[in-house]
Each structure stands twice: as structure tokens, then as C-alpha cells.
């Protein structure tokens, strides 16, 4: 981290919690599809460190995450390491930035946790404001869109197959 970089835990003080999550052993765990966090900052850089569970090193049906910056998905990846850091935003000039981290795969296909959020921003990060209306979907392959992603008619389930098509903006 550079001298101006600040690190944050994904707690209610710093992020808006989306969906059902669980805080355990100092990290925010994401299991269900659609669960995640959202935050904003005014700065030049953001890095997210994701912690994989025991499935992360197996290479089989890894957890899939999406990270969006200002409404554009910049990361669509499978968590294949115990710890993985993503640089999701970097600029020479300070900008207003909104970052959303979402678990895209089902709970049965492993979990991930948000280990740390690091930003180069004088005022740190803050939760985005709550929406006036929300809908929560709880489910499995239907709610994470597996049927839509199987456009190649492979018909054998794998979280990797979901990455075959071009990621859509969130």
C-alpha cells in the first residue's frame, strides 16, 4: 500500500450490505448469489482483496464474483486462490467512484469473503445510500442465471460455463 492508501473491512460503517451475508472471523462472507456490498469514495485507486474458501484451490465449480465500477462490470472472475487482490479502479485524477462487489454463483458452489477494501482516498469509503424499494431473491441456479448462460448447450453444470459469454453491465 502507498502512504495515502487506507484499508477498510466490509462492515456496515463502510459499505452498504446487499442481500444475505455473514460476518465471520473478521471478514464478510458471501454465499448466496446476489449477495455483496456497495460503497463510494472520491479518490484515485481501489483494490479489493477476496478470500476464497477451501474450494478455491480445487479448480472445480469455483465461486464466481463480479465487481462493478460506476455501473460497469470490470471484474467477472472465478476465485481460484485463497487470497486474490483485484485493482478495480485507477486514475491519475481523483474521481467520484461507486464500487459494487457481488457473488454471482450459487451457495452450493462455494463461498467467498471480502478480506479488505483498500483505496487511495483522503476521506476513505462510505456506504452508498439505501434504495427506496428493494426486492430480495433467494435461490440457486435460477436466480444466478445459469440457464441463460448455457448458450452453448453444454448442459453440464460448471460455474466456469457462466463466463463464456461477454459480461453484461450491472
Automatic annotation (TrEMBL):
This is Carbohydrate esterase 2 N-terminal domain-containing protein. Residues 18-129 form the Carbohydrate esterase 2 N-terminal domain. PANTHER family: ESTERASE, SGNH HYDROLASE-TYPE (PTHR37834:SF2), GDSL-LIKE LIPASE/ACYLHYDROLASE DOMAIN PROTEIN (AFU_ORTHOLOGUE AFUA_2G00620) (PTHR37834). SUPFAM superfamilies: SGNH hydrolase (SSF52266). It comes from Paenibacillus albidus.
Amino acid at each position: 500500500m502507498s502512504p495515502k492508501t487506507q484499508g477498510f473491512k466490509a462492515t456496515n460503517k463502510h459499505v452498504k450490505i446487499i442481500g444475505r451475508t455473514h460476518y465471520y472471523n473478521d471478514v464478510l462472507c458471501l454465499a448466496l448469489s446476489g449477495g455483496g456490498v456497495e460503497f463510494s469514495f472520491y479518490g484515485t485507486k481501489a483494490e479489493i482483496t477476496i478470500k476464497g474458501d477451501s474450494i478455491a484451490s480445487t479448480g472445480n465449480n469455483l465461486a464466481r464474483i463480479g465487481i462493478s465500477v460506476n455501473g460497469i462490470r470490470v471484474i467477472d472472475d472465478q476465485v481460484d486462490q485463497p487470497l486474490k487482490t483485484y485493482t478495480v479502479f485507477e486514475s491519475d485524477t481523483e474521481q467520484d467512484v461507486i464500487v459494487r462487489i457481488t457473488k454471482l454463483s450459487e451457495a452450493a458452489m462455494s463461498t467467498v469473503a471480502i478480506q479488505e477494501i483498500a483505496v487511495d482516498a483522503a476521506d476513505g469509503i462510505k456506504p452508498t445510500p439505501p434504495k427506496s424499494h428493494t426486492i430480495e431473491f433467494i435461490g440457486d441456479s435460477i436466480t444466478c442465471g445459469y440457464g441463460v448462460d448455457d448458450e452453448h448447450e453444454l448442459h453440464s453444470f460448471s460455474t466456469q460455463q457462466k463466463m463464456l459469454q461477454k459480461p453484461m453491465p450491472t
